Amino acid sequence: MLKFLSKVKIEFNALDPRTASCLEFLAQCNARQAKESNPACQLQVKRRTDDHPPQITVTFVNGVEEVFDATSTPAQTIRTMILEKGQFLETEQMFREAGEKWPVIIPEEELHQSFPGTKPRKAEDKKQ
């Protein structure tokens, strides 16, 4: 998960009962496997003393910053969103390295073309 991020900032008040998501996400970030995936990723923890709701701010390697409300978003959902966006970034990078335009634009007429598909052959039809 961290391999797609350059910075993670977790803010919470330790006395706030809504910190479960922040603490779980912090534990995931501190896991050995996560740290090894991107040792350059900065992890900042800000322990607050006010009533500010817990939040998680992530900065992707392309500079895009996203803020999650940790009171209403489970840590696993945040992790899944990061992985999905990370796969998108990897795909974009792969196309750019290959010299292809990004984003890929599929012509409207190709979207509506029928696809003949393939039919699975029955076992007795296959050559043995």
UniProtKB/TrEMBL annotation:
InterPro entries: mtLSU_mL53 (IPR052473), Ribosomal_mL53 (IPR019716). It is found in: Mitochondrion. The keyword Kinase does not apply. The keyword Membrane does not apply. Transmembrane segments: none annotated. Keywords: Mitochondrion, Ribonucleoprotein, Ribosomal protein, Transit peptide. Residues 107-128 are annotated as: Disordered. Belongs to the mitochondrion-specific ribosomal protein mL53 family. PANTHER family: 39S RIBOSOMAL PROTEIN L53, MITOCHONDRIAL, LARGE RIBOSOMAL SUBUNIT PROTEIN ML53. This is Large ribosomal subunit protein mL53.
